[in-house]
Amino acid sequence: MSDHSNPFLEPSPLPYRLPLFALIRPEHYREAIELGMHEQRRAVEAIATDASAPTFENTIVALERSGELLRRVMPVFENASSADSDAAIDALEVEFAPLLAAHRDAILLDPRIYARLVELHAARDELGLDAESAQVLERHHRTATLAGAALGAAERAELTAMNTRISELTTDFQQRLLADTNELALHLTDPDELAGLDAGRRSAAREAAVSRGLDGWLITLVLPTGQPALAALERDDVRDRLLAASRARGCRGGAHDTRAALLELVRLRADRARLLGFDSHAAAVTVDETAGTPEAVAELLDRLVPAATANAGREALALAEQGTASGRRPVEASDWALLSEAVRRERYAVDLEEMRPYLEFDRVLTRGVFRAAALLYGLTFAERADLVGYHPETRVFEVFEEDGTAVGLYLLDLYTRDSKRGGAWMSSLVEQSTLEGTLPVVVNNMNVARPADGEPTLLTLDETETLFHEFGHALHGLLSDVVHPSVSGTNVYRDFVELPSQVNELWVLRPEVLGEYAVHHETGERMPQQLVDRLLASRTFNEGFATSEYLAAAVLDQAWHRLSPADAAAVTDVADFEHRALAAAGLDAPLVPPRYSSTYFAHVFAGGYDAGYYSYIWSEVPGADIMAWFVANGGATRANGDRYRREILAPGGSRDPRDSIRSLLGREPDIAALLERRGLA
Predict the structure, then answer these.
(1) Distance CA 439, CA 477 (A)
(2) In terms of domains, do 381 and 436 share one?
(3) Inter-axis angle of helices 26-48 and 111-122, nearest 10
(4) Does residue 616 lie within any of the structural domains?
(5) Are residues 114 and 218 in the same domain?
(6) Is there a single domain that holds both residue 131 and residue 211?
(7) Which of 52, 244, 576, 581 could form a disulfide with 559 if both were Cys (CB 3.0 to 4.6 A apart)?
(8) What range does the domain containing 56 cover?
(9) Residue at which a domain ends, from 522, 537, 552
C-alpha cells in the first residue's frame, strides 16, 4: 500500500514546488520512482492505443505531460546521488539505473508511438503549428528515430539490453571514482609540508582532516588533473605526491579501479552505434548536435592544436628559465603551476594569491554574480532562510524580475564534502513550463574547501570564474520562457549548452561588476586598479597550457568514441591507448597532462558528455564572439541583457541554437574572437 506521507506523491506545497527536503527519506525515492514509471507507462499506453488519428495535442502534448511524478522525483534523486550521496542512495542508484534505462527505451522505442510521430512529422507543414510546437514535434521525431525506434523487434530488444548495461556501467564508474577520489586525498602531518599555503588554505585543509577524524591536514582532490594547491605548495616532494594521487585515480587496481567499466562502456557504445547504423559512437552523437559530424569536430581541434602546443612550448621554456634562476630541479609536471605563477609575478607583477583577500565569497556572490544579473536583466535576489535545502550548507534565494514578478528559486551548495562528486555543475529540480504551470528551481554545486568556523571563505580567481560560469547555466534555467518541458532551459544541444555559462564569465573582470565585489575582506579597500590592469594584461598568459590540457582531454574523448566495434574490442590497455591517442594528436607533452585522464574522465564515462567533451571549445567559438559583441556595445547594460535574454536564454531548446546566435549577432559567428581570447591568433 502506498505511504501517503511520501513527499513526492503530490506536488510540493512549498513556494515554486521546492521539494520537501526535510521529509525525504531513501524509501520515498523507491516508492516514487516505481510508481512514477508505472504511471508514465500507463499514460503512454493510452497514447499508443488511442483509436483517433494522431494530433499534436493527443500525441505530443500528451507525451509532454506524461511522467509528472518522475519529473518530481528524479531530479531530486539525481541531485542527491551527485551532491549528498550515502550508502542508501548509492544502492538505490545501482538498483534503478538499469530499470530507468529500460523504462525510457520502452517509451522511446515503442513502435506504436513512433508510427504516430512519423505520421505527424510527415504532415507537419499542414498542422498550423507555432514555431515552438513545430520544433518540439521535430525533436520528438528525430530523437526517437536516432534512438532506434525504426529498428525491427529483435534489434530493439538488443538495443534495450545495451542501454541497460550502459546505464549500469556509468553508475559503477561514478561510484568507484568518487570512492577513489576520497581515498586518495593527501594527508599531511608535518607542518613543514604545508609551506607555501596561506592561512585560508591551511584552515580548509585542517577542517577537511577534522571532518574525517584525522590529525594534521587533508588536501582533498578536485576533479581535474591539476590540483589548486600545486600553485602554492613549495616542497617538491609534496607537490609530486599530490599530482601522483590525482593521476592515480581509477587505475590502482582493487575495488575502486574504473578501467574495466571504461573498456566495457567503450565497446558497448561502439556496438550500439553500429546497430543504429553509424560508424562510431562519436558519429551517432554528433549527428544530433550543431557540429553534425566527428570530422567537423576533428577539423576544429586540429586547427587549434598546433598554436596551443607552440604556446605551451614557449611557456615551458620560460618555466625552465625561472626554475634555473631559482636553483630548482629540472621542470616536472608537478612544478608547472608553481613556476607559472612565479613567471606571472615576474612578468606582469600579478600574484593570484594576492587577489584572494579581495574575493570573499558572500560579496562575490551578492555584489558580483547577482549584481551582473541585476544590471543585465533587472533581477533581484532575496535569501529565504525559511526554505530548507537538501543539505544544511545549501542556501536558497528567491529570484524576482525588476517589477517584483516571481522568476524562481536559486540554490547554491558551495563546499566540498566526501558525499559530493568532484567538479562544479548546475542542475534543475523544477523546470520552467507554462504547459505544467511551473517556475524554475535550479541548483549550482561547487567544491570549495570549507575554512574553519568563523573564518572567511576566500575564493581563488579560478573559483570566482567557476561561480560566474555555473551561474550562467543557472540563468539559462531561470530565464527560460517556453511552453513545453522537453525544451525548457538547458534542454538544448550539448554543444550549445556551455555557451551561456562561458558568456557569463565575461563579467568577472568587467569594471561595472568587478569594482563592486572585489573588496578586501578586512580593510574594505577595493582591489587596486593597477592590479586589475596587470591581471588583464596577463589574461592570455599560460593559455598555451590551459588550451593544450583541454584539447588533450577532448582528443581522448573523441579517440575512445570514434573506435569501430572491432577496434574497441581490441583495446585492453587503457594507459597504452591513451598514450598512443595523445601522441598521434601531438599532445603527449609530459609537462602538460590532459585535463582528465581516461580513468577519472567523469564527463564522458559517467556525466553525459561522451563524444561531446569537444562542446566546450565548440560553443566557445560563438561564445567568445558574443562576449566581444557585449563589449563593443557597452557592456552590462539592460538593452544588451534584454536582447541576449530574448535571443539566447529564453528560447531554451525551442528553436535551433544556430538561429538564436545569428539573430543576436546579425551574422554567422567568427572564430577570430576565440583565437584572440585564448592567445592563439
Answers:
(1) 10
(2) yes
(3) 60
(4) no
(5) no
(6) no
(7) 581
(8) 15-108+110-150
(9) 537
**Number of other CB atoms surrounding residue 579 within 10 Å:** 12
pLDDT category of residue 335 using cuts at 50, 70 and 90: very high
- Report the C-alpha gap between 371 and 357 in whole angstroms: 20
Residues 526 and 380 reside in one and the same domain: yes
Q: Which of 512, 537, 562 is the last residue of a domain?
A: 537
Q: pLDDT by residue (tens digit) across 632-672?
A: 999 999 999 999 999 999 999 999 999 999 999 999 999 99
Q: Which of 162, 178, 23, 28 is nearest to 88 (CA)?
A: 28
CB 178 within 8 A of CB 421: yes
Distance CA 541, CA 546 (A): 9
Active site residues: 470
End-to-end CA distance of the chain: 66
> What are the tens digits of pLDDT across the range 411-469?
999 999 999 998 999 999 999 999 999 999 999 999 999 999 999 999 999 999 999 99
Contact assessment for residue 597 and residue 474, using Cβ atoms and an 8 Å cutoff: no
Q: Is the pLDDT of residue 269 over 60?
A: yes
- Structural domain tally of the chain? 3
Q: For residues 367 and 358, what is the distance between their CA atoms, to the nearest angstrom? A: 12
Q: Are residues 419 and 507 in the same domain?
A: yes
Here the cell at position 15 is 513556494
The answer to whether residues 71 and 215 belong to one domain is: no
- Residue 381 pairs in a beta bridge with 399
Block residue for cell numbers 587533508: 218
**Beta carbons within 10 angstroms of residue 539's beta carbon:** 14
One domain, residues 210 and 145: no
